[in-house]
Amino acid sequence: MAQTLYDKLMDAHVVREDDSTTLIYIDRQLIHEVTSPQAFEGLTMARRKPWRISANLAVPDHNVPTTNRSSGVSGISDAISKLQIETLDKNCKTFGINEIPMNDMRQGIVHVIGPEQGATLPGMSIVCGDSHTSTHGALGALAFGIGTSEVEHVLATGCLWQSKSKNLNIEVSGKLNKHVSAKDIALYIIGQIGTAGGTGYAIEFSGSTIQDLSIEGRMTLCNMAIEAGARVGMVAVDDKTIDYVKGRPLAPSGVKWNKAVEYWHTLHSDKDAYFDKIVHFNAQDIKPQVTWGTSPEMVVAIDGYIPNPTNAKNQTEKVSWENALNYIHLTADTKISDIKIDKVFIGSCTNSRIEDLRIAASVLKDKKIANNIKLALVVPGSGLIKKQAEKEGLDKIFINSGFEWREAGCSMCLAMNADKLEAGERCASTSNRNFESRQGQGSFTHLVSPAIAAASALTGHFSKVE
Amino acid sequence: MQKFTTFTSIAAPLERANVDTDAIIPKQFLKSIKRSGFGVNLFDEWRYLDHGEVGMDNSKRPLNMNFVLNQKKYQGAKILLVRENFGCGSSREHAPWALEDYGFKAIIAPSFADIFYNNCFKNGMLPIVQDNNVMDELFASTDAITINLDAQSIHVNNKTYLFEIDTERKRRLLNGLDDIDLTLQYTDDIKIFEKGYFNKYSWL
């Protein structure tokens, strides 16, 4: 029977099927410091051992400082952040789990280092106590975020109970407009189907536009599947996927590589596979996007206007829009390009990869950021990306234009470390969530692509790339 | 985990859609390495007028009296009424921990985000889906609601509404079963699976 990619990936991992739920085997668990301490504590209290230690890879990312790390973890000034990172180090040591510690060159955001290290391989089932685990689906893996109880469950049993999601195919076809990137595709789709549009579904992104995206771009897109409500976002394996994986530290080699590649080539939906829902978009309709409210679905094109709540489709949406405008200190019908910004953040598991930094740097080259920008940050997704960018001289372009060049981590995407917005500050951010107070209490987040973040830094208001 | 039993309570109506887990429990409280004590910071930014940080004496903080949970008539509510897509965003289980620690045992909404929905069951809390018409009736009522998981029913104002729930999740909630204990009963199945799996996918 013709199968979807999701069906194939699920089937390969079924340990046991009961009436309404399925026990699936987990190939890889990625662990970070925020959602794991209670899981390790549970394991310890029940005197259980990890089922398969080598399935796990840990890295601290949410709390790590992005400035001076010369004194290591003991030098972290925030005592509770420090304790959380120390707890991860201690738990990994106690249980023998492979950890990339804070001052290791390979450290970075968990969803960046998984693929970078080859810890993420096509066909794998991958979980992490973080909703942006959908990122790894870009390599044809079955990857989704879980809660801490499930982190403990996977540690203890190597498996997870799952109910099957429905299949949603989002097809995007045609050539992208100039300066439009995967981030704009993601925001555009969320604007069209809503933040609950993918709830209950596993999304496969397909079509010529998706095939033309780089693996980095596909990661950006799959990363934001969760912002459309879907735990899983995926792209079929093709030659680009295989090229990306080849030679990674944890990727197979020799005979095993050939065998793996043979299997990986089967990881696509069959021609007549059944999808519960199919949605088509035309790449030509997608312009650079800017969010205006407090949910990723509150998004318009950069040449657009803030919508008016009187045009909302129902009372619930009207109330949501009014609440959002009230929170974010903007009024209906304002031109997006008239909105001034205070800070710029380029980073996060959505947009901190080398390709993102190259695009931003190309916009900023030999130019200076506007006077009203109080702070502009670039936070690479990993130490290795930072090193690569420095090799290419991107760091100098950023610094010369007025950006700060930082160490790798989640940083101002969720502001658990020292990088945050003050109340009332407005930020053009390449991250993934514009929720109330996400980047600092009482602050205002506008989600954009790296190109728009850079262009807006130069003018001090939301701007297209010139 | 405690067994989920039939109970009656007033319901606190939170008239909002797309409530995200950042709003349920803001990130500064995620730095705790414990599983308990999140209830006082549930909906922190809506509930208090000042900026909340870890370690504050919450009893001394100024309350936002317009926020539903601060109103006298909703004190002690074990049921939360909300609008669609409740619990979207981050997978943080601190969100259900905070709701449960505050005292909620059930949440009724037209829809939930997937990860949040799943996390509720791991903490003995019942998320119930009802369509918008029923939600409007529940929001309009101030009477106590009885929730009977065994019968899959909500009873209020002499009216009964039924709800759907996965049979296995229901069984585990009603019996207060521990997921890990249940799974470890299948240790042999997992070992047999692994043997075939690593033989077939030898590069893993």
Structural descriptors:
heterodimer, A: Aconitase, domain 3, five-stranded parallel β-sheet, 15 helices, globular, B: 204 residues, alpha/beta, Aconitase, domain 4, four-stranded antiparallel β-sheet, four-stranded parallel β-sheet, 8 helices
Short description:
The complex is a heterodimer of chains A (466) and B (204). By secondary structure, chain A is of the alpha/beta class.
Q: What would you say this structure looks like, in words?
A:
Chain A is 32% helix and 16% strand. By secondary structure, chain A is of the alpha/beta class. In chain A, the strands form 5 sheets. Chain A has a 5-stranded parallel β-sheet with strand order 5-4-3-6-7, with helices on both faces. A 5-stranded parallel β-sheet of chain A has the order 17-16-15-18-19. Chain A has a 4-stranded parallel β-sheet with strand order 11-10-9-12. In chain A, helix 2 (37-45) packs across helix 5 and helix 12 (354-364) runs parallel beside helix 15 (450-459). Chain A is globular, with a radius of gyration of 21 Å. The longest helix of chain B has 14 residues, at 187-200. In chain B, the strands form 2 sheets. Chain B has a 4-stranded antiparallel β-sheet with strand order 1-6-7-8, with no helix packed on it. In chain B, strands 2-3-4-5 form a 4-stranded parallel β-sheet. Chain B contains 8 helices and 8 strands; from the N terminus they run E-E-H-H-E-H-E-H-E-H-E-E-E-H-H-H. Chain B has 2 domains: 7-165, Aconitase, domain 4 (Alpha-Beta Barrel); 177-204, no CATH class. Chain B is α/β, with parallel strands linked by helices. Chains A and B meet through helix 2, helix 3, helix 5, helix 10 and helix 11 of A and helix 4, helix 6, helix 7 and helix 8 of B.
